Amino acid sequence: MTACRLTAAAIFGLGLLLVSDPLCLGQGGLSGDSASDNGYSSLKIDVDLVLVSATVTDHSRRFVTGLEKQHFRIFEDKIEQEIKHFSNEDVPTSIGLLFDVSSSMGDKIARARDAAVAFLKTSNPADEYLLIAFADRPSVEEDFTSDISEIQNRLVHKRAKGSTTLYDAIYLALERMKQANHSKKAILLITDGEDTRSRYSLINVRNAVKEADVQIFAIGIVNSYYSDLARGRSGRGILEQITEITGGRAYFPNSVYELEDICTKIAIELKNQYILGYSSTNRAKDGRWRKIKVKMKTPKGLHSLSVRTKTGYYGPQG
Questions:
Q1: Does residue 33 belong to any structural domain of this protein?
Q2: How many domains does one find in the chain?
Q3: Alpha-carbon gap, residue 85 to 45, rounded angstroms
Q4: Which of 6, 5, 7, 9 is closest to 298 using CA atoms?
Q5: Non-local CB neighbours of 203 within 8 Å, separated by 6+ positions
Q6: Domain shared by 117 and 174, yes or no
Q7: pLDDT, position 227
Q8: What pLDDT is attached to residue 27?
Q9: 234 inside domain
Q10: Strand, coil or helix: what is 119?
């Protein structure tokens, strides 16, 4: 067994934890706004707050935990906002798994399935999962459940065939996420190809992504000769574009053997995010897109930190 590689730095009494190995991170010792019977905190906030999930990393891309509210500044359309809610706990999350089962996944589907299972095994017992498989069309294989064995059983029986309806799958997932039971929502997409026959367009999907408060992570498998993503930048660019809007990230492993580590890393990131909440000073109900920018006030003794969040949201309509 490999030893955990954790680096701790005490800054004016502040305990900062730089997580260099995701598998070494524990889940104990969390406290929050309120605690549920199973020991995990639940997120209770005012409905008028704008919630922003923030991932903070150092120059080595290690997750940085232990920061406080004063280390963050948040801006909406370049106007600084007062942070009224702050937490860095592993709150229950609603997660949609989008699994490509098109014909080009034939030689990769077993490894992709193992990676998805590794992701599930890191779950908070209060998390819930939705499984959507897509080929010629997307289908909901398992609606929201906290029983990960149900998701695993569904994955075991999936076989690769058909074309790739990537956009339809994302659109369906975003619609289903509206029925989620938790305020924190994320999607994990695993695919090896560009869209080939969706009814929805990229513009449709981009608009839906901007309207939804859902963080999207994507894994684009590019190591196969038959992979559409391996033939050019367009497919990669689409995944990067969609995930960036939400504050998520797109990964492009060179081998299917990297999938499990990446899925574990994404799962750990979801558990190490800061949640910032503010009431917008913009009271207009014009439904316009509002840009969000989060800046860091790096504590003394640390090198510069990077923060990743969603790029904005649509304001309310009158």
A1: no
A2: 2
A3: 8
A4: 9
A5: none
A6: yes
A7: 57
A8: 33
A9: yes
A10: helix
User: Tens digits of per-residue pLDDT, 262-300?
Assistant: 999 999 999 999 999 999 999 999 999 999 999 999 888
Domain boundaries, position 155 = 94-270
| Cβ atoms of 187 and 216 closer than 8 Å | yes
The reply to whether 208 and 228 lie within a common domain is: yes
Alpha-carbon separation of residue 35 from 41, 46, 135, 190 (angstroms): 4, 17, 41, 33
Residue 162 lies in a domain: yes
Are residues 128 and 242 located together in one domain of the fold?
Answer: yes
C-alpha–C-alpha distance, residues 141 and 181, integer Å: 18
Task: Provide the residue type at 27 as one letter.
Answer: Q
As a whole number of angstroms, the distance between CA 183 and CA 51 comes to 9
Q: How many residues comprise the chain? A: 318
Cα-only R_g, the chain: 19
Ramachandran region of residue 16, left (φ > 0), alpha (ψ -120 to 50) or beta? beta
d(CA 133, CA 142): 9
d(CA 268, CA 152): 19
**Which parts of the chain sit beneath pLDDT 70?**
1-47, 223-233
Whether residue 224 lies inside any domain: the answer is: yes
Task: Give, in order, the Cα–Cα distances in Å from 74 to each of 78, 149, 304.
Answer: 9, 40, 17
Cα–Cα distances in angstroms (integers) from residue 227 to residues 97, 104, 163, 234, 264, in the given order: 20, 7, 12, 12, 23
Does residue 53 share a domain with residue 121?
Answer: no
Both tokens assigned to 65: 């935990």
What is the per-residue pLDDT for 92?
93
Residues 83 and 118 in one domain: no
- Say if residue 178 is in the same domain as residue 222: yes
